Amino acid sequence: MGNQPIKRFSQGLLNVAIWRNKGTSRYGEESVFHTVSISRGYKSQGEFKSTNSLRPEDLGAARELLEQAENYLNNPDPEMEEEIVEEVI
């Protein structure tokens, strides 16, 4: 599986990624859970970089991407958990 997101949603320079994680509960049982990250790309001195800071004008697009991530997590497709999928708007 590696350290790659199971699903990615993008709009412009914004990116929302869903990660599949494994952990152990306090009772010693192995569990699987998901986390969501958001980032914005930018160029600095000709080099492409990424930040977790958003500008006010990014908030509408971020809201849409987070809503897509929420819908995906609430209605998962088991086959998609095994592959990396990217949706670009």
Quick structural summary:
The chain has a five-stranded mixed beta sheet, covered by helices on one side. The protein has 89 residues and is α+β, with helices and mostly antiparallel strands.
The count of β-strands is 5
Gyration radius, in Å = 15 Å
Q: Can you tell me the residue ranges where pLDDT is under 50 for at least 5 consecutive residues?
A: none
Strand % is: 35-45%
* Count of spatially separate domains: 1
Strand order of the largest sheet: 4-3-2-1-5
Cα-to-Cα separation, first versus last residue: 26 Å
Q: Which class best fits the helix and strand makeup?
A: alpha+beta
- The number of distinct helices, counting runs of at least 4 residues, comes to 1
Protein traits:
5-stranded mixed sheet, alpha+beta, 89 residues
Describe the structure.
- The chain is of the alpha+beta class and 89 residues long.
- The protein is built from 1 helix and 5 strands, in the order ββββαβ.
- The chain has one domain.
- Helix content is 18%, strand content 45%.
- A 5-stranded mixed β-sheet has the order 4-3-2-1-5, covered by helices on one side.
- The longest helix has 16 residues.
